[in-house]
Amino acid sequence: MGTYKEQNYETKSMISASLKKLMKTKPFNKITVKQIIDDCGIVRNTFYYHFEDTTDLLRWTLREDALKKIPSIETNKDLGLVIDGFCSFVLDNRSLMLSIADSLSYYDLKRVFYKDLFAIIQQNINDAINAHSLTISNDFRQFFEDICCSALAPIFFDLLQAPNDTIVNKRISYAKALLLESIRSTLIYASNAKL
């Protein structure tokens, strides 16, 4: 028998496997907690002990799958490399991602990606502030961190609509240029404007 942490991870993985199995036959927004718990043979309380809802489960599932393919996401603070990694993951899982995009609202899409990207965005904003010795209010900083994180989810799903790899690669370059340059220039502007 494994440690509590190992057992906890195994249970989450089992629940996640049921979600992935169900998503092969129906859209994500049509999958219920009852269907998931019936499929994996657990009780409702076990599900809610590990996850807030099905969107939280989806976020955990995607994060675990992404980390298996892109371990640097968890430790890498280079936003450009992280965007490359996430884009690669999204494209490698195109059919799953299209199903998710068709099933979720913009708010839910944001929830799926927000938690994992926020720390990276926050670190890049802090680095830009320190590198340029800027003075930014906490209110503006929080607003800007949220805007930057919110901008990434639609970018990932826009890639899925690209007709070929050449256009995908161009869009990834455009997204990185836009986000990375906008962080620096917006913070400089905000500091000069005393925001």
Describe this structure in words.
The chain has 195 residues and is mainly α. The protein has 2 domains: 1-51, Orthogonal Bundle (Arc Repressor Mutant, subunit A); 55-192. The chain is built from 10 helices and no strands. The chain is globular. The N and C termini lie far apart (55 Å). The mean pLDDT is 83.
Secondary structure: elements and pairs:
Elements (H helix, E strand, L loop, with lengths): L3 H20 L9 H8 L3 H7 L3 H16 L2 H4 L3 H14 L1 H10 L2 H26 L6 H23 L4 H28 L3
- The residue ranges in which pLDDT falls below 50 over 5 or more consecutive positions are none
Could you tell me how far the N terminus lies from the C terminus, measured between alpha carbons in angstroms?
55 Å
**What's the β-strand tally?**
0
Q: What's the domain count? A: 2
* Percent in helix: over 70%
Keywords:
0% strand; mainly alpha; 195 residues; globular
Give a short synopsis of this structure.
This protein is an all-alpha fold. The protein has helices spanning 4-23, 33-40, 44-50, 54-69, 72-75, 79-92, 94-103, 106-131, 138-160, 165-192. The chain folds into 2 domains: 1-51, Homeodomain-like (Arc Repressor Mutant, subunit A), CATH 1.10.10.60; 55-192.
